């Protein structure tokens, strides 16, 4: 669609120019590409957010992101304690606070609501626990999302084993556009079972061979589930990752564990 990053940035700058002067741009302080977009010209007030940087800042109380302090302009707003994990979730919370505040809300009054926030389906959704094995369904479908999701889980579970079932479902994943980045994104997984259907146009062993013995491929969902059943032990965390239906694999696995 776009020939390079610069072309994408130009499109974002067109968007920036449509935001009126009485609007607000809420910008990720960690993203250098966004800073370059704003440097092209910006006539709207900007507020940045980040972990340890930006106008809105989070200071982690728990490494897994389940608790953190919020400050704005160097002044403490309060603390968030919630069930979500990962730095990406913390960043989402900061962006939401900044946007709501720009719309006139009191950020201190909003913080308690995070405690009861249950997230959405398929974002590290716990679908069941059987015989001490916890099973999750997650929408992560590209290397960045996979890495941040697993890093959050690793920070939460410590040395417990993490097993990942991965389906390359999005167009870019099926075409192999992210192949070289997938193995590094799976660094926090102890075992990876990659669904390598016969019609996949690239060799998934490019990923599993780079996992130092922690990865394997299976040609079907049935075979993948059987492999995970043989591998899973009490105390394990099994994460199914796909932006597609995965043939109902997460819930089928929960049922399989109960047999």
The CATH fourth-level homologous superfamily of the largest domain: Mur ligase, C-terminal domain
Radius of gyration: 20 Å
CA-CA gap between termini = 47 Å
Helix count, DSSP H or I runs of 4 or more residues: 10
**Helix share, percent:** 25-40%
Q: What shape does the CA trace take?
A: globular
SSE order: HEHEEEEHHEEHEHHEHEHEH
| Mean pLDDT across residues | 94
Q: Report the uncertain regions.
A: none
Would you tell me the structural class of the helices and strands? alpha/beta
The number of E-state strands comes to: 11
* CATH hierarchy, class of the largest domain: Alpha Beta
What does this structure look like?
With 259 residues, the protein is α/β, with parallel strands linked by helices. It folds into two domains: 5-116, Mur-like, catalytic domain (UDP-N-acetylmuramoyl-L-alanine:D-glutamate ligase, 3-Layer(aba) Sandwich), CATH 3.40.1190.10; 125-257, Protein-Tyrosine Phosphatase, Chain A (Alpha-Beta Complex), CATH 3.90.190.20. 36% of the residues lie in helices and 23% in strands. It is built from ten helices and eleven strands. It has helices spanning 5-18, 32-39, 87-102, 107-110, 143-157, 171-174, 179-185, 205-208, 221-231, 249-257; strands at 25-28, 46-51, 56-60, 67-72, 75-81, 125-130, 133-138, 162-166, 191-195, 215-218, 237-241. A six-stranded mixed beta sheet has the order 6-7-11-8-9-10, with helices on both faces. Strands 1-2-3-4-5 form a five-stranded mixed beta sheet, covered by helices on one side. Helix 1 crosses helix 2 and helix 9 (221-231) crosses helix 10. It starts with a helix and ends with a helix.
């Amino acid at each position: 669609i776009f020939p390079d990053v610069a072309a994408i940035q130009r499109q974002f700058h067109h968007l920036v120019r449509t935001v009126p002067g009485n609007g607000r741009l809420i910008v990720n302080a960690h993203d250098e590409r966004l800073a370059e977009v704003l440097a092209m010209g910006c006539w709207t007030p900007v507020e940045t957010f980040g972990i340890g940087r930006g106008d809105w800042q989070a200071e982690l109380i728990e490494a897994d992101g389940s608790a953190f302090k919020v400050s704005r302009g160097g002044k403490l707003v309060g603390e968030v304690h919630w069930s979500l994990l990962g730095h990406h979730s913390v960043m989402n919370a900061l962006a939401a606070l900044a946007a709501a505040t720009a719309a006139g809300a009191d950020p201190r009054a909003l913080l308690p609501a995070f405690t009861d926030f249950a997230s959405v389906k398929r974002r590290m959704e716990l679908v069941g626990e059987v015989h001490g094995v916890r099973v999750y369904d997650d929408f992560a479908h590209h290397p960045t999302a996979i890495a941040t999701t697993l890093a959050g889980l690793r920070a939460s579970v410590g040395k417990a084993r993490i097993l990942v079932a991965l389906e390359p479902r999005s167009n870019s994943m099926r075409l192999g556009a992210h192949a070289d980045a997938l193995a590094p994104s799976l660094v926090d997984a102890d075992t990876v079972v990659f669904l390598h259907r016969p019609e996949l146009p690239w060799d998934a062993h490019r990923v599993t061979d780079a996992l130092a013995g922690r990865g394997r491929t299976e040609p079907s969902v049935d075979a993948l589930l059987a492999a995970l059943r043989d591998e899973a032990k009490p105390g394990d965390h099994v994460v199914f990752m796909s932006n597609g239906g995965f043939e109902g694999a997460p819930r089928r696995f929960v049922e399989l564990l109960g047999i």
